[in-house]
Amino acid sequence: MLNQVDVIVGLAWGDEGKGKIVSAISKNYNYVCRWNGGPNAGHTVYLKDKKYKTHIIPCGIFHNKKSIIGPNCVVNLNKFYDEIDYLKSEGLDTNLVKVSPKTNIITERHIIYDKLCLQKKLGTTGQGIAPAYSDKMLRRGRLAKDYIDKKYLWDGVLHGKVLCEGAQSFWLDINYGNYPYVTSSETLPYSACSLGFSPKKIKNIIGVAKAYDTKSGVDPLFPEILLDIPEFKMITEYGNEYGSTTGRKRLVNWLRLDYLKHAINISGANKLIINKCDILEKVGMYKIIDKNITKKFNDLDQFKRYIKQSLCKNIKILFSGDKEKL
Ligand code: IMP
Ligand code: MG
Fold this sequence. Notes:
Blueprint: E1 2-10, H1 18-25, E2 31-34, E3 43-47, E4 50-54, E5 66-69, E6 74-75, H2 77-89, E7 97-99, E8 104-105, H3 108-122, H4 129-137, H5 144-147, E9 160-165, E10 202-210, E11 212-215, H6 230-238, E12 251-256, H7 257-267, E13 271-275, H8 277-283, E14 286-290, E15 293-297, H9 300-310, E16 316-319
Helix pairs in contact: 3-4, 6-8
This protein binds inosinic acid and magnesium ion.
């Protein structure tokens, strides 16, 4: 029987360090599942100081958990098998990886179309995501059940405790993001139910944000002039703000609190983790944009206090570096 579902969701534009959080709490769950997106994602995980990266397989695999790719994801089979080989070479049990029979397959044609027609205009990752979801909606997509090695097919069963690992984030959601500068899937917790459970099963919605905003790819909310601002250049370097799938330099801005508040409200997060506070300390500057006014703080404590006071009281907030646990 399925007892409880917890959902991890990005509250910004991706790259908030969701992988790190998933990895930290995976041990408490029986399953770790992806419900959206495909190889456009990049989840980085550190285990005993060694860096690991996956693009489609959930990070639960690093903790020996059943790792499910749901029917609302899109899978590039070449990349999937490459990732399986990589995980095997790291000594991990890839028999735990399962893919829904109804997951749509990304084809070479999807990738070519994305690279030729979308990548420049919309700043997509060029992984064939939008064309694959288009074919899904046109009901002419290819399904995993007809193309993937049968041993990887998921029987649809979930039991015990389930952790759902969001890919991309609130402001990239097809419905709520800054359309058309979004991805083609639903990144919010409502979509986690596509894995096959009732919304009533969800207990915790763990929102992940970052101490500053970044955007990988084009978005008028992040004008190019941001690239010339010295303090943001420092954040880019100290924070290693380069796309983990594309290697592109991310655009940086101070944390815009109004966007974060909106993302918390719509996603229903009851817990919030704010990552990369150490980068602000390295840069030695602490700023937030609140209602279009830039607020400056003397230190990290003041910065944290302002955020805590500004957000609603019934959300538990943790900052990276805090001793307290979730
Ligand atoms: P697509 O998902 O490749 O179609 O890209 C659409 C937009 O979402 C682009 O702005 C990408 O940079 C962004 N995007 C997609 N996946 C990620 C991610 O995992 N992290 C950050 N940005 C992403
Ligand atoms: Mg990522």
